[in-house]
Automatic annotation (TrEMBL):
Gene that encodes it: glpE_2
Catalysed conversion reaction: thiosulfate + [thioredoxin]-dithiol = [thioredoxin]-disulfide + hydrogen sulfide + sulfite + 2 H(+); thiosulfate + hydrogen cyanide = thiocyanate + sulfite + 2 H(+)
One example GO MF annotation: thiosulfate-cyanide sulfurtransferase activity
Protein's recorded name: Thiosulfate sulfurtransferase GlpE
Source organism of the structure: Pseudomonas fluorescens
Function: Transferase that catalyzes the transfer of sulfur from thiosulfate to thiophilic acceptors such as cyanide or dithiols. May function in a CysM-independent thiosulfate assimilation pathway by catalyzing the conversion of thiosulfate to sulfite, which can then be used for L-cysteine biosynthesis.
Length: 109
């Protein structure tokens, strides 16, 4: 894959169930208030460490508020060598309404 794909929550959920890494790029306070269960928070300070430690071939789903910023972040991850990257259409807001029981509070997991 040379570019990311935009996917709906249902497809992201299926990928997550199969072991995809879910990364949330919203601000830390919003992430701590509520996020997708099992997701990892990424920001400008943690992205380098994440990239160094990650399996570049593992599927990654990028989540933001509404599905816009995650597209830029997904494109960036592709440019850094990741091969299987997805942007969650509708972002966390659509996930939250689609899978309300699959959310968690607290800092990065």
């Amino acid at each position: 894959m040379s570019e990311f794909k935009r996917i709906p929550p249902e497809q992201a959920h299926a990928l997550r169930e199969q072991g995809a890494v879910v990364v949330d790029i919203r601000d830390p306070a919003t992430y701590a208030a509520l996020h997708i269960s099992g997701s990892t928070h990424l920001d400008n300070h943690s992205i380098s460490d994440f990239i160094r430690a990650a399996d570049l071939d593992a599927p990654i789903v990028v989540v933001c508020y509404h599905g816009n910023s995650s597209q830029s972040a997904a494109a960036y991850l592709i440019s850094q060598g990741f091969s299987d990257v997805y942007s969650l259409d509708g972002g966390f807001e659509l996930w939250r309404t689609t899978f309300p029981s699959e959310t968690a509070q607290g800092t990065s997991e």
